[in-house]
Amino acid sequence: MDEILEVLEKDARISPQELARLLRRQPEQVKKAVKGFEKQGIIVGYKTIINRELLQDNNNFVSALIEVRVTPQKDVGFDKIAERIYSFPEVKSCYLLSGTYDLLILIEGRSIHTVSDFVAEKLASLEHVRRTTTHFLLKRYKEDGVILKRKRENKRIAISY
Question: Per the structure, how many domains does the chain have?
Fold first, then answer.
């Protein structure tokens, strides 16, 4: 992978000037490369990772991983049903898997009820969906390579004999 992409993947907020200095390149060369990556669809977006446990309104947020078994369609395989599923606004990620299930989707909702309504009313009712298994995320420790949990100070009193 290109050095520019490696740095941007770890820190998308780095300025072209800092990136150029870090990689010992000219800023214009870096800007041109980034624009090229965006135009080619290699860079498709920039993301902020939010530790939702630290938000006060965290009670209004639920994430679930849903394993989906589907019947592949003639001539298009899994792509058409995957496209239909990832088009729902609740779906944040969608992956083709090997193994027992065909697709893995990550969805987000305001409550367990909104997630279960999505599964029952939108997902399970799709023509080529054969089976689903839902796993609710209870706690996030690391996301996209970033550790979310802050280290707590040890407040235990040391005991010595």
Answer: 2
Distance CA 38, CA 40 (A): 5
Looking at the fold, whether 69 and 130 belong to one and the same domain comes out as: yes
Output the CA angle 95-97-101, nearest 5 degrees.
110
What digits encode the pLDDT tens for the residues 97-116?
Answer: 999 999 999 999 999 999 99
pTM (global) more than 0.85: no
Q: What is the pLDDT of residues 53-92, one digit of tens each?
A: 788 776 678 999 999 999 999 998 999 999 999 999 999 9
Paired with 68 in beta bridges are 103, 132
DSSP the chain: --HHHHHHHH-TT--HHHHHHHHT--HHHHHHHHHHHHHHTSS--------GGGSTTGGG-EEEEEEEEEPPBTTTBTHHHHHHHHTSTTEEEEEE-SSS-SEEEEEEESSHHHHHHIIIIIITTSTTEEEEEEEE----SEETTEE-SPPPP--SPP---
What's the CA gap between 95 and 97, in Å, rounded? 6
Q: Which domain holds residue 22?
A: 3-40
